[in-house]
């Protein structure tokens, strides 16, 4: 296989968000579906502008809209339930929702409003305020929004009036990035979860943070370094990520919360939901964006461990990082991002299986509750809310891009209809306080515009992606994949070595993840006809009849990602786990 063909295969695995790879034209669809997509696109467009226009009318330039009372909240300094006494008297907000809406405006084709917003931010936004903010949330929402918008403002489409934009958003992003750096000044290099934008780390600041909080900074801060030429930001984020990875257990699992000063774990139970979710996401996406094999090796090990110790059929429970034993059997709404991540790996069967279960829960309640107890088949007594989260819509978009199965268009329609039925009010879209009563809460989160509406729109109109490759941050901000940002292709991928990997016994002993190819188009298992690898971790048994003499002739199970062994009777199976 040539090097060019290898790179093409590798990009197929990851850049499935590029319709150019999947032939996105609707000509192959039933004409009724083409009309349906157009109708749904306009329906989502109206959703976005109902939320956006009400924000501009009642909340701008403050951070987020309170749609029931048609007022505002300055949530940049409230993220994580920050007390109001931390907010200065003259603080007028950071226009958070406006920043979060920038790339959505571009995707919806509204270059005029995008330009107006960019120029307003250029002239009015400042971070020189006495405000204590959550580093993770400010990174993914504000820094990510600014970096993404800068790259959209300076791309080849010339969507801004010539001369009107002079890198103002990048300058703002750089100023914010500098204000982040004191948070990393710890004995471990792991950053504090909270920092004051004006004064740095406060006296007696909490030293507790989450795995996501210190392991999901590399995309935004790495992109900032590449754009400014200053490696400081990427180095700080990378040092924190490496230290976090060094704290994994022998099972390649990490906990949920830790102490940034001592480097000790506080909560040993972990999963793919809150507190950990974007850690997995950023390992994979950092590899795509920067081409660094170190990120891939981390993700490879972490993903296999998650599949092995967290997965139970289509569901994912939590487990102790040291023993791998299940701790909490619960579904959380944040877990719904996982099928989308699996699409990027090429693990479509596993992604589809979990996605369908999440959608069944959505259908049961009308929306996706924050937490559902799987072992008791009931809602969590205090976490019955739905804050307009995007994760199910996100995974639906990815799965449709990968499969072109019209069923996912129907799922998207169900999500849109539920949002309009239960959450739409005169002043915008309100969160749901209790999914059993559909009682509303007076909050329209900025991510509703940054992610929920964006992924639903892209589900029905992916023209923004045609001919271009992007990765989306965990907050839905698109970053273009640029060859200039990629490290040199490792020597192990020269054509001679790849040919060797494809031949003989070695090909049988490799999984699609180890060879970095998509399971759906994977190798024919070393000459065994049409046998296909079923998942990202699957390694076929050496013989089609599953007979064996030694464990070496057995592969890796496609569902559990556990190594199969040879029984006394001479058959491969999961005998050690029965």
Describe this structure in words.
The chain is built from 20 helices and 22 strands. Helix 6 packs antiparallel against helix 7 and helix 9 runs antiparallel to helix 10 (232-246). With 578 residues, it is mainly alpha-helical. The strands form ten sheets. It has a three-stranded antiparallel beta sheet. A three-stranded antiparallel beta sheet has the order 12-13-14, with no helix packed on it. A two-stranded antiparallel sheet has the order 1-2. The relative contact order is 0.12.
Percent strand: 5-15%
The 3D shape can be described as globular
- Number of helical segments with 4 or more residues: 20
**Sheet with the most strands?**
3 strands, antiparallel
Class computed from helices, strands and strand pairing: mainly alpha
Helicity level = 40-55%
Mean pLDDT: 86
Number of separate strands: 22
- Could you give the order of strands across the largest sheet? 5-6-7
Computed Rg: 24 Å
- Residue ranges: pLDDT <50 for 5 or more in a row? 1-28, 78-91, 489-508, 523-530
Taking the alpha carbons of the first and last residues, their distance comes to: 40 Å
Observed structural traits:
578 residues; mainly alpha; 10% strand; disordered N terminus
Provide a compact summary of the structure.
Helices cover 43% and strands 10% of the residues. The protein is mainly α and 578 residues long. The chain is globular, with a radius of gyration of 24 Å.
